[in-house]
Amino acid sequence: MFLTNIAASDYRDPWTASFSERLARLGEGSRHVAYFYPHPNMGTFRYRVLNMLEALATTGLDVGASWFSRDELCHREAIIARADVIVICHAKYSVDFAQLVARAHARGRRVLFDIDDLVFDSRYVHLILNHLGNATGDSDLDYWFADQGRYGALLRLCDGAILTNEYLAERVRDFCDLPTAIVPNFMNRAQLERSARILDNKRSAGFARDGRIHVGYFSGSATHRRDFAVMADAISGLMDADPRIILRIVGFLEIDERFTCFGDRVEVFPMQNILNLQRLIGQVEINVVPLQDNAFTNCKSELKVFEAAAVGTLSIASPTFTLRRAIRDGETGFISPAHHWQQTLALAIARLDSYPDMAMAAAAQALQRYVPEIQGPAVIRALFGELPDPAV
Amino acid sequence: MRGSFSWWLTRPLRIAAGVWRRDPEYLTRLGQLNPSRLMPWRHTEASPTPEESARRLLRDSRSDPSVEGLFASSLPDLVPLVTYPEPGLASAGRLTVLTDSLDAGSHFGGEATAILFAVALARHQGLRLRWVTRRAPPEPASFGAVLAAHGLDYSDNIDFDYAPTDTGARELGVTDRELLLTTSWQTTWTALKSFDPSRIIYLVQDDERVFHPAGELQLRCREILCDTRPRFVVNTAALRNYLVAGGMTGVAANGVAFEPAFARTIYYRESKAPDRKLRLVFYVRPNHPRNLLLRGLEAMAGAIQSGFFPETEWDCYVVGKAITRIELPRGIVPKIADSLSWRDDTALIRQTDVGLSLSCTPHPGYTPLELAASGAVVVTNQHETRHCLDAYCANILCVAPSVDALVAALGRASQLAKNESTRLSNYLAARIDGDWEATFAPVLDVLAGY
After folding, report:
1. Is B169 an 8 Å CB contact of chain A?
2. Measured between CA atoms, how close is A170 to chain B, in angstroms?
3. Is it the case that residue A91 has pLDDT exceeding 50?
4. Does the CB of B142 have a partner CB in chain A at under 8 Å?
5. pLDDT higher for A311 or B449?
6. Domain positions in chain A
7. Rounded-to-integer distance, Cα A30 and Cα B207, Å
8. Is A169 in contact with A161 (CB distance < 8 Å)?
9. Do B144 and A339 touch (CB under 8 A)?
């Protein structure tokens, strides 16, 4: 484990502005975009709405941008009146959202749908349930087909879609043949500042370690049991052979009984806020991102990799569409096919001596791509088409 | 009496009889020899056969009396795959391999061959690879270990899935471009219930009919081998010819064969250290009755009693899981190699001078070929159509399975092992393939033509 002296930090949700403040902000500038999300939260809302607003602010293009929730759809006329573009993010069809689209179209506004998961095409329902390990009884299928049908129905009403990667974009085009644009997930300023402190701390200490080797699995939700199973036998085999190895689990994961014999060599932390998550990631030597290989997982974003890279932690990841593009294998981390995890983990451990160089290269790669300043132009292009001249 | 040849010769039979009777006095006297571990097939006989299950269920008023209910209860492994449609991606088709398990035991024999063949087939047809197990969740690291052991680099990702036979088990997604590789008659039966038979390739590595007594299971196994719809890829021409001669019309119509390969990087003759004794090794899987544990012990005992393997020159080994202790004549207690890792197992093969490996199978089996490819002299038994293995290597002595014939062959083997020039020239002239790619190539070409 890396010896960092970064303390846990307080965190406050950044979505405290009132409706009137946000409406006023929408009206500022020469171009206007209103994001709609069902309810603010620490997950997708942060990546796909708040971070987009941050990115727009970095472009210097005088864009009025703000977010609104489903509960504020009653104010849609006021919002549409001020917006050039409406982005509906990760929302399902409802009477209110259908009205939002209809009224926006009636006023000639462009409506885009933003989604970061393959949850809109009911042909994939069974695959997703199977991947998540969910039941497939009639009531389950009723729920999931309806759920995905509603996402798909709202998507079809829109004029285009913004996705996190090209693989997901292809699924959208296959589903409804809408124009697509790509804006990957990226970090916000608070995450970046926190990550920079952690990285500086590790670098100034010469990446000092306590002799143990922490392998971290940072699970975002309770749906990753089968993903973790991709490498469970490999990590348990290595833990058997090497007492230095500690498995750190953060978030929801039901690990199988083969790990009980390791006692306190399996550390379990509850879900963390985004700042403290960076601290826990920064302490581990190896961040593992195993994924099954199917249409659902190939749509997933690379955020687990770049968030680790930002704090100087190397990742080993499955070669899904985005993950294999986010890592230069052997230079900024490691890519591992499902049957190679044991060898890849062993290789990463054997190369701990060259860790600082690789970690700094990984951090540099992350900071060259997954930051608001870099993604701002991509957001502009996705919202308004061509990139406007900043001088205009 | 205890030291006499006849006592030693008949001792294994007494063990068998004692275990059969579950005679506590006998078992106690045997002490170190755990009969349930030595002959675990007795346990399998203790579990009800399909026929017994059906009879019990017919008497049980609580059970489902329908034919389907009886079938499901009596043949719990014969459960069709429950599938769901998975949208096909334009990028590539997929090869799905159906196996019972994938774990550390997969490093050996037919399971490793299935891995190597699946990789070759996926590559040849440009397919993604998915590995599905039915009895236990797969351990992907074992797959990687097999490839690493054979120096095979396969960096494409593989999807590992678990589709148990339990009622209510998880479903398996299938695309309309799925190609199925099955690895047993049961997995073939399972696949045939849910897939277009022309998309199924059954990798046959044994005469699986003999795994079951005459009855329900053997009947169904035969039906699969006589099904002319799927394709059959058979491990060794000897096995294919045997099945065809036995009337397996499916194999006759759609069967192609390959010969196994034994990589030169793994199987080669290691020079013997001057101070090391020669090694006589009996390779046996005690839980596989076809490996003739008792006959092999009889032959070893006879050969030692006859003075073919004096303790001053020879070390004796018995290699096989779940063997605890065996005593041979002249006070020789062989070294027991129980549950060797794949690495240790292959190291011992390379250091074997005389190997004894018996089997009631129409194909030569891997062990005799591994030993011969590693420079050992091998004694094995004839069985039905398998009379001579000279075509592979003249260091393989294939004789009748009688004790006398095996003892005599072991005597010849001990001399041949010490006759360096003949042993070496036989080794160098061996016709045992060393390259899986080459041995699979003709079969892959045939499959590509369908």
Report:
1. no
2. 10
3. yes
4. yes
5. A311
6. 19-186+372-384, 189-367
7. 79
8. yes
9. yes
